[in-house]
């Protein structure tokens, strides 16, 4: 992190470098940030110049465009992380083709991303400014040791070596994870012929309940941790899983597709009216709250709502967890991962008060320890675990039920 005035020294002023090949866009972003109290200490027009600007100005955070000449934003992230590790916030155009490269940037070490503001001045600009400033402030406070650890695991062989990050210390779901999965087809074949071998140590496949429900909430720094958790869930656990990751509209579908290719579970973006069956994971779509209800036969059903944001976000973790408490029958586990703010804290409390199990990510592996810390301080968290131990903690609970 920066040694100059900034979040780390108590001055309260975040210092940023803005990287974009468009002078107009650099000026627009500078204006939005400075209006929001961010000090812009430097600019760069491509990835090569970005590294020079970071070395010269030692900022707290970098806003990074993706498509640029000479060196694109993805390669620039890798260069910065190798030469002068600094939190990077990607500015991604709101388009499907940009979603995949945005997630690649997260694999390379970027902390988070935000939808790039449009060039025209519209009535939505105040909202754009608030979102951009909040994301910059959050990214500036990220623990890079945690994000680097998970991004390295996610980028290794397309995420198949994620278990390597947890080789030291914690016991993870599935034991020797690298041997479990070389491809999705291979994983399914292994599970079909040797379910007990793929199960966490001490938990035979038959020990899991007929139906268990897991709700996972995450914000800044969450995508790679969510991937790690889902990769570590053996299919024979037969869980129903809901994922609420703070993410803009247009990106959650690609996020779900990415997860689906790296897990034994059927993972898709949630659709209103569908039933949540065992073995399925559904991701809350950006800009919609995800709630659970029961159909006439008592089966779990999903609905999407556009009610007001909670804690300034939609989807909100609290909304999903609260609805799960009201409608889910059988074992229920709530997991709260890295992120700034307090979304999910009330939800975790509700789950705990109603007899469910609660898990929070530990400080060492959290990019932002805000949400987990507040949940832990509430006294409603049963287990605190590193990223590589989250799945094991949840599975231990389900195996006991």
UniProtKB/TrEMBL annotation:
Pfam family, one: CheB_methylest
GO biological-process terms attached to the record: chemotaxis
EC number: 3.1.1.61, 3.5.1.44
Entry keyword annotation includes Phosphoprotein: yes
Residues with the 4-aspartylphosphate modification: 65
Region (Disordered): 165-203
Catalytic activity: [protein]-L-glutamate 5-O-methyl ester + H2O = L-glutamyl-[protein] + methanol + H(+); L-glutaminyl-[protein] + H2O = L-glutamyl-[protein] + NH4(+)
Molecular function in Gene Ontology: phosphorelay response regulator activity; protein-glutamate methylesterase activity; protein-glutamine glutaminase activity
Transmembrane portions of the chain: none
SMART domains: REC (SM00448)
HAMAP family: CheB_chemtxs
Ribonucleoprotein keyword on record: no
Annotated domain remarks: Contains a C-terminal catalytic domain, and an N-terminal region which modulates catalytic activity.
Similarity comment text for this entry: Belongs to the CheB family.
Key words of the record: Chemotaxis, Cytoplasm, Hydrolase, Phosphoprotein
Active site, per annotation: 219, 246, 343
Subcellular compartments: Cytoplasm
Gene Ontology CC entries for this record: cytoplasm
The protein's name: Protein-glutamate methylesterase/protein-glutamine glutaminase
PTM annotation: Phosphorylated by CheA. Phosphorylation of the N-terminal regulatory domain activates the methylesterase activity.
Response regulatory domain mapped to chain residues: 15-131
Residue stretches of biased makeup (Low complexity): 191-203
């Amino acid at each position: 992190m920066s040694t100059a005035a900034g979040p780390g020294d108590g001055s309260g002023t975040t210092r940023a470098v803005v990287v974009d090949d468009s002078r107009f866009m650099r000026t627009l972003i500078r204006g939005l940030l400075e209006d929001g109290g961010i000090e812009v200490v430097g600019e760069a027009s491509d990835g090569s110049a970005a590294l020079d600007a970071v070395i010269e100005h030692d900022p707290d955070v970098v806003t990074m465009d993706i498509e640029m000449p000479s060196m694109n934003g993805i390669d620039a992230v890798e260069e910065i992380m190798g030469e002068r590790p600094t939190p990077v916030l990607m500015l991604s155009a709101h388009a499907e083709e940009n979603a995949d490269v945005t997630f690649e940037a997260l694999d390379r070490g970027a902390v988070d991303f935000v939808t790039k503001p449009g060039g025209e001045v519209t009535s939505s600009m105040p909202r754009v400014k608030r979102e951009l400033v909040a994301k910059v402030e959050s990214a500036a406070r990220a623990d890079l040791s945690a994000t680097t650890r998970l991004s390295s695991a996610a980028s290794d062989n397309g995420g198949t070596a994620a278990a390597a990050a947890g080789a030291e210390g914690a016991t993870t779901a599935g034991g020797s994870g690298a041997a479990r999965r070389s491809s999705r087809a291979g994983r399914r074949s292994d599970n079909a012929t040797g379910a007990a071998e793929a199960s966490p140590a001490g938990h035979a496949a038959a020990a899991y309940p007929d139906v268990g429900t897991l709700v996972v909430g995450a914000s800044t720094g969450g995508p790679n941790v969510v991937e790690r958790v889902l990769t570590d869930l053996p299919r024979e656990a037969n869980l129903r899983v809901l994922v609420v990751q703070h993410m803009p509209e247009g990106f959650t579908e690609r996020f779900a597709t990415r997860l689906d290719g790296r897990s034994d579970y059927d993972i898709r973006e949630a659709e209103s009216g569908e039933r949540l069956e065992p073995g399925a994971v559904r991701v809350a779509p950006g800009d919609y709250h995800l709630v659970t209800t029961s159909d006439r036969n008592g089966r779990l059903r999903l609905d999407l709502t556009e009610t007001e944001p909670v804690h300034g976000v939609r989807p909100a973790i609290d909304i999903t967890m609260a609805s799960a408490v009201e409608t889910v029958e059988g074992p229920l586990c709530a997991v709260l991962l890295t992120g700034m703010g307090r979304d999910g804290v009330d939800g975790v409390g509700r789950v705990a008060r109603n007899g469910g199990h609660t898990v929070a990510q530990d400080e060492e592996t959290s990019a932002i320890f805000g949400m987990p810390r507040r949940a832990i301080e509430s006294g409603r968290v049963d287990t605190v675990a590193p990223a590589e131990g989250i799945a094991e903690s949840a599975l231990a609970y389900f195996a006991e039920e």
